[in-house]
Amino acid sequence: MKRNWLLAVSLALVLAMVGLCGCSPGSTVVSGPFSNQQEGIWVTGEGEVMAVPDIVTLRLGIEAQAVTVDEARLQAAGAMDGVKAALIDNGVAEKDIQTQYFSIRQVTEWNRESEEETVVGYRVTNMVAAKIRDVDKVGSIIDAVATAGGDLTRIDSISFSVDDPSAYYEEAREKAVADAKAKAEQLAKLAEVKLGKPTYISEGIQTLSSIYPRGMIEEVAAAAPTTPISPGEMEISLTVQVAYAILD
């Protein structure tokens, strides 16, 4: 019995010593599927291309206010019918007109005599997003909408985009990979090592942002009687993260 107890104590001491050696300062334990990707040269490449927008999205609509809900609703409905007709008459497809917001809200004022909020009317708001595929007609479409909706017309925002940016992203991707390779080659040269093949490639963030050239809107405004709209250019960019092996 005593002998078995001594063997158990000895085994416990051996296991403890092995554990301490394994966790000694300076040691590194790497496990999991990414253990082979901790070595090499890691770089991030960036690619950018410029594109001219071919889609314009207008967020517009009607806002009517009256003493009763029914009166405000009828005013808004009539004006919105005119706005939608103006959009369609100017080449905007019905499938490209989508309701974005609709509300009926009370309009209140502070009554000094009773010292409380009182309802003085109702406001109906109806906003749609209209996708315009002919950029050159945006100004004239805005004018037609404003005329159709009259004083009830509201134009909330305008945005530009590219209908099919895939070709631009392909070009940006090529530039990003070339940029990553150039950075890796420079790092390898500075470190006096030989660069191997990529062992890991991951595509990062894709962005599409508008850039408006200065002075263009003023020039168009001086030459055209319609509302001046300038699409400018859009910057399409993406990043790639690449890991290169280091050859012996």
Description:
It is a single chain. The protein has helices spanning 2-22, 69-89, 138-149, 166-191, 216-223, and strands at 41-51, 55-66, 97-111, 116-132, 153-161, 194-211, 233-247. By secondary structure, the chain is an alpha+beta fold. A 4-stranded antiparallel β-sheet has the order 3-4-2-5. Strands 1-7-6 form a 3-stranded antiparallel β-sheet. A hairpin with a 4-residue loop joins strand 3 and strand 4. The longest helix has 26 residues, at 166-191. It is elongated. Mean pLDDT is 82; it is low at 1-35 and 213-224.
Distance between the termini: 58 Å
What overall form do the CA principal axes indicate? elongated
Number of domains: 2
Count of individual helical segments: 5
The secondary-structure element order is HEEHEEHEHEHE
> Which CATH C-level class of the largest domain is it?
Alpha Beta
CATH architecture of the largest domain: 2-Layer Sandwich
Q: Could you name the ranges where pLDDT drops below 50 across 5 or more consecutive residues? A: 1-35, 213-224
Structural class: alpha+beta
Question: Helical proportion?
Answer: 25-40%
Adjacency order of strands in the biggest sheet: 3-4-2-5
